[in-house]
Design goal:
CATH superfamily: Quinohemoprotein amine dehydrogenase alpha subunit, domain 2
Largest sheet: 8 strands, antiparallel, barrel
Shape: globular
CATH architecture: Beta Barrel
Distance between the termini: 36 Å
Radius of gyration: 16 Å
Number of strands: 11
Number of helices: 1
């Protein structure tokens, strides 16, 4: 039940952020008006970034590495973190509705074993957003295509 409420709240926030981002425009002197960010066509490949958060979920803003495979609107893959919170953890319930993305991963090793929901937005070769634990703690995260 709690995980469902977290997903609903996260999708609501993402919807608001999406509407706001659609209103932003990038106008240059020699170009026509165009959307500020371009959504990439595929998420396949290696992505590296950081997670901002505190104990017991993440230790000292660790580096994260994701190996992603996109199949239509589904996202599969693995996640690793430099602090050991994720050791090749399998990405679960991964979905993309461009430019929004969300997936879950269960922490491993000596951490809480919590299920962490990652949600965010794709802008060119960057994804950034928020993470939320099954205990309702949260923070920011980002990844960049390698």
């Amino acid at each position: 039940m709690t995980t469902s409420l977290i997903k609903i709240f996260t999708l609501f926030i993402l919807s608001i952020l999406f509407i706001y981002s659609c209103e932003r425009l990038d106008v240059t002197a020699n170009s026509s008006i165009k959307p500020k960010g371009e959504v990439i066509s595929e998420l396949n490949g290696l992505w590296v970034g950081k997670v901002n958060g505190g104990e017991p979920y993440f230790n000292q803003n660790p580096r994260i590495t994701l190996d992603l495979i996109q199949s239509d609107s589904l996202i599969l893959g693995n996640i690793r973190s430099s602090d050991g919170a994720f050791k090749n953890a399998t990405i679960q319930n991964g979905e993309i509705a461009k430019p929004a993305i969300s997936f879950e991963a269960k922490q491993t090793d000596y951490y809480t074993g919590s299920l962490i929901l990652f949600s965010g937005f794709i802008e060119q070769d960057t994804v950034q957003g928020i993470w939320q634990s099954s205990q309702s703690d949260s923070g920011k995260w980002y990844i960049i295509r390698q």
